[in-house]
What we know:
0% helix; 3-stranded antiparallel β-sheet; mainly beta
Amino acid sequence: MQYKLDKDKFSVHLDVKHFAPEELTVKVVNDFVEVHAKHEEVQDEHGFVSREFHRRYKIPEGVDAAAITSSLSPERVLSISAPTKSIKPAEERSIPITLQDKPAEKKK
């Protein structure tokens, strides 16, 4: 498992080699990304096994939750990522000075 947050991207990479694509779900619930994987009992070289896991990752502040995507590589590494919201610095602008007709109020 690899979790990474840098200035322009949030990403998580999970090894899910024991699960088929249809056995995986990824969803956003409130401020979390949830991953669920489950397969019923299957036979392997040692006998029978069933597997299931749930993972929840807090979506970091500044990450665009609506833009979260996931993909599965041929090696069955699940990648979840989203861009961070760009916070643009305020552009330089002139602020006009308004001239008032009456004198400024003095505090008592």
